[in-house]
């Protein structure tokens, strides 16, 4: 009786040109990601103008592959969901323009989606949500704790006041001359290193769920600098392990405290840094004695993709939330 | 033959519907920024005015640059995605070439340009001969000084067309004096009807291969290439 709902998602907020089709908000029908990592590697980070140039070259190619792989026709598609923000404005605009063109040409509802809502809903492609739910989003652009009491309702309870966790990873990786993106390399080194350097943990005010990583970054710089002046050589592995432990301990502890305070029924971790082994292990150990289930999606759904945008867009679709053809990219779109 | 033409490559935004190369409607704004907000509603309005459904379109023509990087991408992404979804050809035309259509009856050179900051312009030189538009000097990212010196050497009367005329008008008059013809502002803006006309003479490329013509590398890329050369 109830017809299946298919949402086509588009995500171009940073350096991945991605489109996907998701059935009923839970089942990936097709999911295509064209990564630009190779193009940005030589610059040691994402260059916004170059990201935008790639998006406009890739967008119709990626869309075509998504439709072809799905085996569906346009008649089957119920709505077009697109990341409207936050992100790089020039990059977002390519996705938003494409989504509006599709919505108009094919007469489909247009649905703007918040990028973070997308990261959270990536988890629902694996496992149904239980509310209230706490989500930790950690990536190169985000470090947030979000409380959800029901579908499509987001309460920001903590966020970074300076660098995102992934940004801190990339910066420290650069200090250690590791290739871009640096996060996975730090993770690997940390596994064999030891936490000997006693870097600070930024707990901030009592009860705060906010984060701060710029002090830690400075501490790492100073430690390396001072050691050099004394003619000592610090082991890269130990710097990595000490740095990563500081980040992971704060992320894990704050997530744990928030989960208890708000009596959540589920904790989910999302974003590119969710791939970090150190973080995964620490969170699993911390939550093991509790009855709170912890979900971390597979790596392919942790990093930016459009299936998560389609999955989040499905909720807006069901709630009747539509965007009009004057939808704009909003680089600092607030959640909720 | 129903053609949808669009342009967001400068601060002017234009949309037009042509039927058999005749303009049925034109919408033009000259408001800086936020083309993203205005383009799709303007397309919808133009189509409604003419009473066309998207599926009745036969072709889309869009400017592919030079101009504002972001602006070019908004128009081109919209045109490419619509063309792909409707399975109709998409033609890309130069924003400077379309400007040169304003000089259809000018005897002499036509120099359309777009300001590219710090004394630089995106410019080319065109000429109408026997009802055809010819490219005299290819479009380049070049200093206005060089353009003007070259045109002075040639000694032909030149019609200058640009949405950014105010920035360069003084220098043009200084170097070329009476050789330069600078019309009033309404003649300077890209008219979307001409985009359709220019596109009707060109073969469509594959939608996937249609890419912007920025005439300039991204800054980070140019710097990187310089570093590689130094090494
Ligand atoms: Zn992301």
From TrEMBL, chain A:
Write out the GO MF terms: iron ion binding; tRNA N(6)-L-threonylcarbamoyladenine synthase activity
Q: Where does substrate bind?
A: 137-141, 170, 183, 187, 276
Q: What's the Enzyme Commission number for this chain?
A: 2.3.1.234
Q: How is the cofactor bound?
A: Binds 1 Fe(2+) ion per subunit.
Matching Gene3D superfamilies:
3.30.420.40
What broad class of enzyme is this?
A: transferase
Biological process per Gene Ontology, one example term: tRNA threonylcarbamoyladenosine modification
Described purpose of this protein according to its UniProt entry: Required for the formation of a threonylcarbamoyl group on adenosine at position 37 (t(6)A37) in tRNAs that read codons beginning with adenine. Is involved in the transfer of the threonylcarbamoyl moiety of threonylcarbamoyl-AMP (TC-AMP) to the N6 group of A37, together with TsaE and TsaB. TsaD likely plays a direct catalytic role in this reaction.
Concerning its family, UniProt says: Belongs to the KAE1 / TsaD family.
Can you name this protein? Answer: tRNA N6-adenosine threonylcarbamoyltransferase
Which organism is this protein's natural source?
Compostibacillus humi
Automatic annotation (TrEMBL), chain B:
Q: Gene3D superfamilies recorded for this chain? A: 3.30.420.40
Q: Which SUPFAM superfamilies does this entry report, sorted A to Z?
A: Actin-like ATPase domain
Pfam families to which the protein is assigned, alphabetical: TsaD
Q: Which GO terms describe its cellular component?
A: cytosol
The GO annotation for biological process reads: tRNA threonylcarbamoyladenosine modification
Under InterPro entries, the record lists:
ATPase_NBD, Gcp-like_dom, T6A_TsaB
What is the name of the protein in this document?
tRNA (Adenosine(37)-N6)-threonylcarbamoyltransferase complex dimerization subunit type 1 TsaB
Q: Please give the organism.
A: Compostibacillus humi
């Amino acid at each position: 009786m109830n017809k299946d709902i298919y949402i086509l998602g588009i995500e171009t907020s940073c350096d991945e040109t991605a489109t996907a089709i998701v059935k009923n908000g839970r089942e990936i029908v097709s999911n295509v990601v064209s990564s630009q990592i190779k193009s940005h590697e030589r610059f040691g980070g994402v260059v916004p103008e170059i990201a935008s140039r790639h998006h406009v070259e890739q967008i119709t190619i990626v869309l075509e592959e998504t439709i072809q792989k799905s085996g569906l026709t346009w008649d089957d598609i119920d709505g077009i969901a697109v990341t409207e923000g936050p992100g790089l404005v020039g990059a977002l605009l390519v996705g938003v323009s494409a989504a509006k063109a599709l919505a108009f040409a094919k007469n489909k509802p247009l649905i703007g989606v918040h990028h973070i809502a997308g990261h959270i809903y990536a988890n629902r492609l694996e496992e149904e949500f239980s509310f209230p739910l706490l989500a930790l989003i950690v990536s190169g652009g985000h470090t947030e704790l979000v409380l959800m009491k029901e579908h499509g309702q987001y309460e920001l309870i903590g966020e970074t006041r300076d660098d995102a966790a992934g940004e801190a990873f990339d910066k420290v990786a650069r200090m250690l001359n590791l290739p871009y993106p640096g996060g996975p390399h730090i993770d690997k080194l940390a596994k064999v290193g030891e936490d000997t350097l006693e870097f600070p943990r930024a707990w901030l005010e009592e009860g705060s769920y906010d984060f701060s990583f710029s002090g830690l970054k400075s501490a790492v710089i100073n430690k390396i600098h001072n050691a050099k002046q004394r003619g000592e050589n610090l082991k890269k592995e130990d710097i990595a392990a000490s740095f990563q432990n500081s980040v992971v301990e704060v992320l894990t502890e704050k997530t744990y405290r928030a989960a208890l305070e708000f009596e959540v029924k589920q904790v989910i971790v999302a974003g590119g840094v969710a791939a970090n082994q150190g973080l995964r292990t620490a969170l699993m150990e911390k939550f093991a004695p509790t009855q709170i289930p912890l979900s971390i999606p597979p790596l392919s759904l942790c990093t930016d993709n459009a299936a998560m945008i389609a999955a989040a867009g499905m909720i807006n679709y069901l709630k009747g939330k539509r965007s009009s053809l004057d939808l704009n990219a909003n680089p600092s779109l607030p959640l909720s | 033959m129903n053609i949808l033409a669009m342009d967001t490559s400068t601060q002017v935004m234009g949309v037009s519907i042509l039927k058999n190369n005749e303009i049925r409607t034109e919408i033009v704004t000259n408001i800086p920024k936020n083309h993203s907000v205005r383009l799709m509603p303007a397309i919808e309005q133009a189509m409604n005015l003419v009473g066309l459904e998207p599926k009745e379109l036969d072709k889309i023509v869009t400017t592919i640059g030079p101009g504002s990087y972001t602006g070019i991408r908004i128009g081109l992404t919209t045109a490419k995605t619509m063309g792909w979804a409707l399975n109709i050809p998409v033609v890309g035309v130069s924003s400077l070439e379309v400007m040169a259509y304003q000089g259809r009856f000018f005897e002499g050179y036509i120099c359309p340009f777009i300001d590219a900051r710090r004394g630089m312009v995106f410019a080319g030189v065109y000429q109408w001969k026997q009802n055809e538009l010819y490219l005299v000097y290819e479009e380049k990212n070049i200093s206005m000084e060089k353009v003007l010196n070259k045109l002075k050497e040639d000694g032909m009367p030149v019609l200058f067309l640009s949405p950014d005329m105010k920035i360069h008008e003084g220098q043009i008059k200084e170097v070329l004096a009476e050789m330069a013809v600078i019309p009033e502002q309404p003649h300077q803006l890209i008219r979307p009807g001409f985009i359709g006309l220019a596109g009707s003479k060109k073969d469509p490329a594959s939608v996937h291969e249609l890419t912007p013509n920025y005439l300039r590398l991204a800054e980070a890329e140019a710097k990187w290439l310089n570093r590689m050369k130094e090494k």
